[in-house]
Design brief:
alpha+beta
């Protein structure tokens, strides 16, 4: 029911946005649209994640997933580039992050492994137009459905600093699938580069 309401609201808000020329109304509708898209992404993430395969198939794939992870873990750990490994199933649980990702996002490996992606990285509540959650979920879902890597446009996605306050950040994200030998999706690999300095220095 909640999903249906969100989907209907998105349709209505998009139509309103195309029909009105009043800047105040447009601003209000943009905020409502962003909120509806965020809520839908959170609902879909919790219910199905980014993997379209049946639950039983996902469970059988776990043994292969562990073996595959052992193969790339040393490179993952030592990479100077920020990487996060996600379970593509319901909840999009964080499987692991490397040190570069931890440093870039002010989080620690021990505190986030096993927790939901969007629990750790919610949208900035002080930005009514924030679309990081809905855009990232859309990209991960695309990867899950197509089995191909997806490079997102530069995305503003604010993060919490060590004191819990949201700070402005802009990222260049690339999301990639990791498959087992049978071609089944076992992980999603999320790679980001912090491009905040380049974005904010532009006139």
């Amino acid at each position: 029911m909640q999903r249906f309401v969100c989907e209907q609201n998105i349709v209505h808000f998009e139509r309103l946005l195309s029909e009105t020329a009043d800047p105040t109304v447009q601003q209000t509708v943009r905020a409502l649209l962003a909120s509806a898209k965020r809520q839908l992404a959170l609902l879909n993430s919790a219910a199905s994640g980014a993997d379209t395969s049946p639950f039983e198939q996902r469970r059988r794939q776990q043994t292969d997933a562990d073996a595959i992870r052992q193969q790339f873990q040393p490179e993952f750990d030592s990479s100077p580039h920020p990487y996060m490994l996600l379970d593509p199933g319901p909840g999009l649980a964080i499987v692991d992050i490397n040190d570069a990702y931890a440093a870039a996002t002010f989080i620690s490996r021990s505190e986030v492994v096993g927790r939901s992606l969007f629990e750790i990285f919610p949208d900035n509540p002080d930005d009514p137009l924030a679309d990081g959650v809905s855009n990232l979920y859309g990209s991960l879902k695309t990867v899950g459905e197509t089995g191909r890597a997806h490079a997102m446009k530069i995305q503003r996605y604010d993060i919490r600093d060590p004191n819990g306050a949201f700070v402005e950040r802009h990222w260049q994200p690339i999301n990639s699938p990791i498959h087992d030998t049978a071609g089944h999706l076992v992980y999603l690999l999320h790679h980001v580069e912090d491009v905040t300095a380049q974005v904010t220095s532009k006139p």
